[in-house]
Amino acid sequence: MDFRTEPAGFLARILALVSLFMGLGDATRLLGLGAGATSPIVAMGLIGFLLLAGLSLMRLFAAVGLWIHAPWGAVVLAGSLVVEVVLYLAGSAWVSLSLWGFIFKLAVMLATSALLVFARRAAHRQIVD
Fold it and tell me: CB 31: neighbour CB atoms within 10 A?
């Protein structure tokens, strides 16, 4: 898969920025910004804190991967979003999303899937030609 073609490269860079901001947003929650005097570990629980830390790291690594046009970046971003959406839909107390947050993450997940499909088709076309 090659993300260096014009539409795929542009979408990969946009998704890299979105992934970067999502990862940094998760990191601010880990640091307890906006939570007042309550410790983030107490507020989210230990497992919720560790889950958010893992998702934050995955999104930051995915941002780097997408920015350098590596296919693993899109896979890592899609994986982190699938984990979060599945846990949210399962009713897990570890993941709290607003309706708009859920819609946004679902849209990013669909855009990431579209990027992977588009790059796969472009690679297949390149092999056939």
Answer: 10
Give the three-class secondary structure for 4. coil
CB 52 within 8 A of CB 30: yes
Say which DSSP state 39 is in.
-
Q: Which of 73, 74, 96 is nearest to 85 (CA)?
A: 96
Show Cβ contacts of residue 71 under 8 Å, excluding neighbours closer than 6 positions: 1, 3, 65, 116, 119
The contacts of residue 111 (CB under 8 Å, 6+ apart) are 11, 15
pTM for this model (two decimals):
0.88
The gap from C-alpha 95 to its chain's centroid, in whole angstroms, comes to 14
The pLDDT, as a whole number, for residue 8 is: 80
pLDDT in tens, 10-20: 889 999 999 99
State residue 37's pLDDT score: 73
Sorted by where each begins, the domain ranges of the chain are: 6-128
